[in-house]
Structures are given as structure tokens and as C-alpha cells.
Amino acid sequence: MQATIPSESLTPPWPRWATIVLPVSATSVFVLGCVYQNLALMAGGAVAIAAMWRSVGGVKGLSLHRLATHRQGPLPSEQRAETSRPATAPETPPKPAPQTESPSEHRMKAIAQKRSTTSDLVSNMIDQGRYALLLRHETASQLQEGELAEVLAVMDDCMSVVPAGRVLVGEYAERATWGSAPVSADCSGLEYVEGCYLDRFCVTNEQFQHFVDDCGYEQFQLWPEEALPALFEFVDRTGVPAPAGWSHGEHPEGEGRLPVVGVSWFEAAAYARWVGKRLPTDAEWTKAGAWPVETSPGRVSQRRYPWGDTFESRRAGLWSSGQRGPRPVDCFEEGASLGGVYQLIGNVWEWTGSSLDATSRELGSSGDGHSMNVLHGGAFNTYFENQATCHFRSGERPLNRRSNIGFRLALSFDIIADQDGLADAENPTTAEPPDAS
To answer: What is the pLDDT of residue 27?
Structure first.
């Protein structure tokens, strides 16, 4: 709706002739003073002009005020002040006074928060395959009963028991499997093995990915001192620290369940430390596959292959099986050992924690003075079946990163916390007082 504005003149209320004569006269006096250089005329004319302009400005200001008042709106100065004034926040209702909690309630809340944090940590460690760290003496005592049971169940699914006992290794095992005379009870090829756990499957690409994502190549405490200068060489195709066949620090798509290959002995050992395990010894690996039985001192009966003494191509991934590359680690179930360990024969060679002695009659050193580490099992490109038995040993320099070498890990019994001791610590029994009689 448009407001009606009263018609008001913005000039002073003088007669019409005065509005013309007075300005002209004042200007004329000022001009004459300038022409004749008369200061009095110049000053008089200037004062008259200033007085007339002041009178006109006052009238204009009064008219603007009346105009704004008539429209019932704010003046321009009031509009500017209103715009620059900060907006007042809406009033918030007062917060209720915090309720005080008793010391017992505070303790229960703290315990619940700790349990939640611990549960998240346990789940994360299990997802990364680092459950062995949770079973050590110093950490197992901090777990709840349900968490400890979950970790033990995961370990039972992932690892197999290798019982304690003696096993023939190397050339002595070769003679024994062909029915040769028994060895003496103190033979150097008859080694005693402490009981341990062994991974049922080789370490996979997706498991090693956790190590790479956790910057395992930058955690120097995981690496032997002699391996530190070589860390700059342990990179993938794109120069990122990772196994040799990877790109940009990631394994090839769709190959998560394949055994990780292209890793040196030092990389395998560093991963083992990261997950709280170790590489198996030559004797432990052989015992897991051959499953020896010592019927009498020096007479040990053990298998040539995990399933028996005759090679069957359908049980292992060798060249004769038509395999031309690694397969998922849970393939060849029929070739598993008596303890339920998969692919001890075929698919990929496996690093062990043992070194070949330079005086070994089988392989010796690499010929250039460098030590070599024992490999077991054969691989997809192994042509001769007699090189893929439970006791056959090959060797490789620890810095080499082959596309047909992977690894699996072991865990000693004495690393695992005593479950009976933990139960006694959690449920201490009160000793009965002696009978007074």
C-alpha cells in the first residue's frame, strides 16, 4: 500500500521574489568584492550565501524527518544502526544441575568403558591376525573370560598342533622312507622337537596387507639390524614398500586368498614379529608333514608325503598337476597332513627359520660366502616330485624375493599363557583354616 505524501516545499517560507533576489544579491556582492579586491564585500557576500544555504539545509532536514514520521518508518540513520546491531541469540533454557553419582556408580561406569575399549582392541587384533599377541602371559590376564575364549577359538581354527617328539631330517629321512636300516639313537639327523603350533595355511595377500597398511616396513624394531640397509629395496612395482608383485602398496585385485609371494626371508621374519609368531624350524616343518612315530630308539616311521608314501598329483599343486601359478591357500584339502595343515607340498615354497650349514652335504652355502635359508615343500613350477617331499630341503639367500616362495608361521607352547593359571588367578580359593582339634 502506497503512503500519501503531503506536498511540502523544501525551500524556506519566504516570498517568491525573495528567493530569487536575495541569492543573486549575495552572489553579486561576493563577486564585486573579488573584482575590486575588497575584503569587506567578499566577507559580507560569503556570510550571506552561507546563511541562505544553512537555512535551506535545515528546512530539508525537517522535511525528511516529517516524511519519515508520516510513513511510520525508521530514519536512514536508524536503519544503519539496526543493520549493524548484532542479532541476539535465542534464550536457552537453563541446564539442569548435573546429578552427582556415587563412587560405586563411577567405578562401574569406568569398568564398562574399559571393557568396551578392550573389546574393540581384541576385535581389531583378531581381524589383523595378531591374536597370538593376546595370548601372551602379560596380556591374557587382562582379557575377560569371553574374550579369552574367543581368541583361543580363533587360534584353534587357524593353527594346528605339532606334538613333541623326534623326527628324521634331511638325507636320513630320505633313507628311512625307502626302508633303509634304522639310524642310531644319537644320530645327528634325528632331532627332538618341542611341541608347537603351526599355521594351517600359508600367509595370504590379504593378511600381509594389514602389515603393509600398518606401516610395517617403517617399524624398524621389527627388523634385524642387518636387514635395515635393504629396506629401500623391499618395494613393489611402483616403488612403494610392499611385496615385489604388488602395485601402489596393494595386492592384485581378486588375489586376497592367494599365498603372499615376492617376499624375502627378512620380510617374512618381520611380519612374524608383528603378529607375535615366528618362522618354523626345519625340524618343526618336517614333523608337521611327515608325522613321525618312533617305535623304538633309532627306528622312526614317518611319511614321505603328508598323505602317505606315494605321490598323487590331485593332492598337491605341482607342475605335474597342471598348475601354472599359485592357488588359494585352502585348495587341495585331500593333501592336508594328519594335523590338518594344508599345502605343505606344492603351491609355493616356504621359508623356514633354519639356515643351511656351509658344510652341508646337500646344498652348502650359496658359493659367494653368503648364508642360505632352508626352503621346504616345492611350488607350482616344481617339475620333479622328489623335490616336493616332507624332508627335501632347498635353499635361498635371505634377500631374494621369488614369485614362488611364501611362508607360514609357528608359535611355541611356552609363549601361550597357562589357562589353568589364569583361571586360578581370576577365581582365587580361600584356604580352609586348620582344624583346631
So the answer is: 78
Segment 149-195, tens digit of pLDDT: 999 999 999 999 999 999 998 877 877 666 555 666 667 788 999 99
The Cβ of residue 394 has, within 10 Å, a number of other Cβ atoms equal to 20
Judge whether residue 209 has pLDDT over 90: yes
- Partners of 300 in the β-ladder: 294
Over the chain, what HEC string results? CCCCCCCCCCCCCCCCCHHHHHHHHHHHHHHHHHHHCCHHHHHHHHHHHHHHHHHHHHHHHHHHHHHHHHHCCCCHHHHHHHHHCCCCCCCCCCCCCCCCCCHHHHHHHHHHHHHHHHHHHHHHHHHCCCHHHHCCHHHHCCCCHHHHHHHHHHHHHHEEEECCEEEECHHHHHHHHCCCCCCCCCCCCEEEECCEEEECCCCEHHHHHHHHHCCHHHCHHHCCHHHHHHHHHCECCCCCECCCCCECCECCCCCCCCECCCCCHHHHHHHHHHHCCECCCHHHHHHHHHCCEEEECCEEECCCECCECCCCHHHCECHHHCCCCCCCCCCCHHHCCCCCCCCCCECCEEEEEEEECCCCCCCCCCCCCCCEEEEECCCCCCCCHHHCCCCCCEEECCCCCCCCEECCCEEEHHHCCCHHHHHHHHCCCCCCCCCCC
Q: What is the pLDDT of residues 250-293, one digit of tens each?
A: 999 999 999 999 999 999 999 999 999 999 999 999 999 999 98
Q: Give the length of the chain.
A: 437
pTM: 0.69
